[in-house]
Design goal:
The chain is mostly helical. The chain contains six helices and no strands. It has helices spanning about 15-25, 30-45, 50-65, 75-90, 100-120, 125-130.
Length: about 150
């Protein structure tokens, strides 16, 4: 039987356990990792985020990075807008379109991270340009009656 490593998403080691392999694979740049960590530690301290929420940010920022042509600290207004467009038409690995929830989550995560990058003077994108992007509403009903278990099930 293969050894499987499971990461406790609420544990402090989760961030490093997710970022380090992505850096090694070249999916993240050496400048991305410290930026993401600083952002997450600051958000957790100021917004009292749970470990689960931090884990979601980690996963979202890794995936969003796939849409950028370069590191986060080189993002321009044009690149930001291009990434938003790519997310809206994005596809999963199986070729299916992103769900409305995924699009909502990725755009919201990117907006929050981009605003932080601007406030820290890491990127030079007008804050108004970031704020103008509307985050699509997440669907309220993600299950249909057919998805529910019946008494027979």
């Amino acid at each position: 039987m293969q050894d499987h490593i499971f990461h406790q998403r609420d544990g402090p080691e989760y961030v490093d356990s997710r970022l380090a392999p992505q850096l090694a694979k070249g999916r993240l740049s050496p400048s991305d990792v410290p930026l993401i960590k600083e952002f997450l530690y600051e958000r957790k301290a100021k917004k009292n985020l749970s470990g689960g929420r931090v884990a979601l940010y980690v996963d979202h920022l890794i995936r969003i990075r796939d849409f950028l042509p370069g590191p986060y600290n080189e993002m321009t207004t044009g690149v930001y807008m291009e990434v938003i467009s790519k997310i809206k038409s994005g596809k999963r690995l199986d070729g299916k379109k992103f769900s409305e929830n995924t699009i909502h989550d990725y755009i919201l995560s990117l907006k929050v991270f981009a605003e932080w990058l601007v406030k820290k003077k890491i990127v030079n994108i007008p804050l108004e340009e970031i704020k103008e992007i509307k985050v699509p509403k997440a669907p309220m009903m993600t299950k249909t009656p057919d998805d529910m278990l019946s008494e027979q099930d």
